[in-house]
């Protein structure tokens, strides 16, 4: 039998195999016709994608740094190639600078800040662990709910909405409840309140508990020094002062956190979250133990990683201290304008929600509207006339406050002028 | 006291308040200086963002539909404005078409397919629930791990890597284990195997269990009809045949799933996942009960939602049936080329990993390399010479196979020609 005839036989055989695949596949025959299909939605066939240029000053999302925005038209690369991994290394370095830490376990999760809250607590809380949660708004309430789901015992100490805790109050809580973990929201975005971290790290070391801090509203806005302040785990999001799109959550675990995680007796509840058993063998972020068997965890959102890399490069190029000062100055300018509005304009009636100045957050400001004014009407009018987006509160404050954020690229004097002008316009035109 | 003097007093008072905020803020004084800061990373200060145009045919991520890619330079809008909500409505409509369902509870989660697996099982599995998992690769193993974490009892039936289950085998499993949920991976991406769904929905109704299907590797590739096939819950990702960036997870729950979820006696473990208590009050997606108190769940990744909307519009415009046929044709062309390579080229030695033709997945093809050839070397050479990205397997197959995917915009004859040409080049040049 010659070569030709073998080839011919094989070709016949191959054709038969393909015919078999064709026949058995659900993709074949009548199933491939559009008969009997639910029709495609008219709205997708006919409507264009309509978007608007906004100045986003509602306290999150903010606008993006120019470099971050520009990175999004870059092509998607493969998960495993060196050019992708190099960008992830850059992100890790940038996040270490941002958090002021040398923690190896510093990376960005796909998913956003709310998911990161779940993930960090799932890893750090074992059933029976007491978690002390100073609660002064939405985020402490949620943290307690999360801790309970993972079998932990949340112990809340509570402050009135619009205020925060003294170091003494936190220490009293620690002494009373002897927690394994203290969970602190550095900036309570629902009320515009700043919780000072001064001395809390030392306190936690003294009492042998871990300190976890939610930096969502404060990272890049006010000074933070993870290592020298002795913070054991932190997370943030990307769409506020980082000036990158929503959808990722930077996270960092210190040595004491990793010790607790690797000596856990129970598995975290979420496979996705599980650092000890899963992330630690994930090679993408280059944080796995060299000897560990590599495994596939999940595909990472490479475009968002480009964007985060470029946002972090913008922050590194400006320098953290300069960025903090810029946020401080923009907020001070906004405060002055609000004060002037209240006084010189003959009393617009806008007042601070946070009465004690030392509790006020930099970057995110919560205001009470004049009597009779619906913040939602103000928000809609300002959006329509100025294309400026403010926020009217979340959680317990929904619809009750005017929330203004000068964050990331928007922490600038000209943006503050724009905001003030828009609010004056709104108050004047909505006056009853 | 005249008006001027009141104003003056107020101004003095305001200045004092700002001074107080300034003094107490951690942002003030020496803390704002860059002294003592860990330095910014050189790599972010000096290196540009380097990316490469790739033809991504490793079976995920794939390249994006042009409209999806183009949407990413659109400006970010606010979370609450009507223009944003309209885009989310479009996404819901597009996903309903994609899944062929009228389910109200159809939306896209921030986070990706691996997270969606966690979330869907967290919602549908209560402690003590038996979950039947036909397991024939990485994803069934992971599903079992997840079910166990949530207190469920995973019951695996197992098939050799490279094969799938008959309806009879699935029915036997159901009869033996009496599961509350049957969890099926429609396309096992680690091995390139297709698990037929024919008859499984009816079976699950007959035996009073829910049918959950992982559509990650198959949605948009082969026919799927959620409603008429009686599937109770599904999820997918966005970076394969949907042709949108990695980072979101479309999900749909049918009536029977929602009944189970709303009558749960225990809370899901993850706050983020919890549909009954949290998502159901989230107004963004317009799926909450009209009377329910609204709450803030999380910020959604609006840019990714633009991209998904545009990808779904591309799919709707082409029509599902046409898209399925296109994937079928591209895969058939690839099969023919592989067969020809094996025979006419005098035996390259590339063989199918999945020996039975009827088990082979459309869109994602797993090949065994010729003896002595390291798939990693082939992947690297092809990337370098052709800028084509193939994959070398994940999970149990890592480094053992050559995985090729013609998915989404890449399911085209010219792309198949490119791939075949690159593989021929690679095999020739790496021949020992």
From TrEMBL, chains A, B:
SUPFAM superfamilies: PLP-dependent transferases. Its cofactor is pyridoxal 5'-phosphate. GO terms for biological process: glycine biosynthetic process, by transamination of glyoxylate. It is an enzyme of class 2 (transferase). Substrate binds at residue 403. Residues 1-27 form the signal peptide. Residues 63-392 form the Aminotransferase class V domain. GO terms for cellular component: peroxisome. One of its GO terms (molecular function) is alanine-glyoxylate transaminase activity. The modification N6-(pyridoxal phosphate)lysine is found at residue 240. The keyword RNA-binding does not apply. Gene3D superfamilies: Aspartate Aminotransferase, domain 1, Type I PLP-dependent aspartate aminotransferase-like (Major domain). Its EC number is 2.6.1.44. It catalyses: glyoxylate + L-alanine = glycine + pyruvate. Belongs to the class-V pyridoxal-phosphate-dependent aminotransferase family. This is Alanine--glyoxylate aminotransferase.
């Amino acid at each position: 039998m010659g070569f030709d005839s073998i080839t011919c036989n094989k070709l016949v055989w191959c054709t038969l195999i393909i015919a078999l695949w064709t026949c058995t596949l659900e993709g074949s025959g009548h199933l491939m016709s559009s008969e009997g299909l639910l029709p495609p939605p008219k709205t997708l066939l006919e409507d264009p994608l309509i978007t608007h240029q906004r100045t986003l000053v509602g306290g999150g999302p903010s606008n993006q740094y120019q470099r971050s925005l520009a990175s999004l038209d870059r092509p998607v690369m493969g998960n495993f190639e060196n050019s992708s991994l190099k960008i992830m290394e850059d992100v890790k370095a940038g996040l270490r600078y941002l958090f002021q830490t040398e923690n190896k376990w510093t990376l960005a999760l796909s998913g956003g800040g709310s998911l990161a809250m779940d993930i960090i607590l799932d890893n750090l809380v074992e059933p029976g662990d007491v978690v002390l949660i100073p609660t002064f708004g939405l985020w402490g309430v949620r943290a307690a709910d999360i801790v309970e789901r993972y079998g932990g015992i949340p112990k809340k100490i509570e402050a009135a909405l619009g205020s925060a805790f003294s170091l003494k109050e936190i220490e009293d809580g620690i002494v009373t409840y002897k927690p394994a973990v203290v969970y602190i929201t550095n900036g309570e975005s629902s009320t515009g309140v700043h919780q000072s971290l001064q001395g809390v790290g030392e306190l936690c070391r003294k009492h042998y508990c871990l300190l976890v801090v939610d930096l969502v509203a404060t990272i890049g806005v006010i000074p933070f020094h993870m290592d020298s302040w002795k913070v054991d785990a932190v997370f943030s999001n990307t769409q506020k002062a980082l000036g990158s799109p929503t959808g990722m959550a930077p996270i960092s675990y210190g040595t004491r956190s990793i010790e607790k995680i690797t000596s856990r007796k129970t598995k975290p509840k979420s496979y996705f979250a599980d650092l000890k058993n899963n992330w630690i063998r994930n090679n993408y972020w280059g944080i796995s133990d060299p000897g560990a068997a590599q495994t596939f965890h999940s595909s990472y959102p490479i475009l968002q990683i480009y964007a985060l890399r470029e946002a972090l490069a913008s922050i590194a190029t400006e320098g953290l201290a300069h960025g903090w000062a810029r946020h401080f100055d923009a907020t001070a300018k906004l405060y002055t304008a609000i004060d002037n509005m209240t006084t010189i304009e003959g009393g617009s009636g806008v007042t601070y929600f946070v009465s004690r100045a030392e509790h006020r957050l930099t970057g995110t400001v919560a205001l009470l509207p004049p009597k009779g004014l619906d913040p939602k009407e103000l928000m809609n009018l300002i959006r329509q006339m100025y294309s400026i987006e403010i926020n009217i509160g979340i959680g317990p404050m929904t619809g009750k406050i005017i929330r203004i954020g000068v964050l990331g690229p928007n922490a600038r004097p000209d943006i503050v002028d724009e905001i003030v002008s828009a609010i004056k316009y709104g108050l004047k035109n909505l006056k009853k």
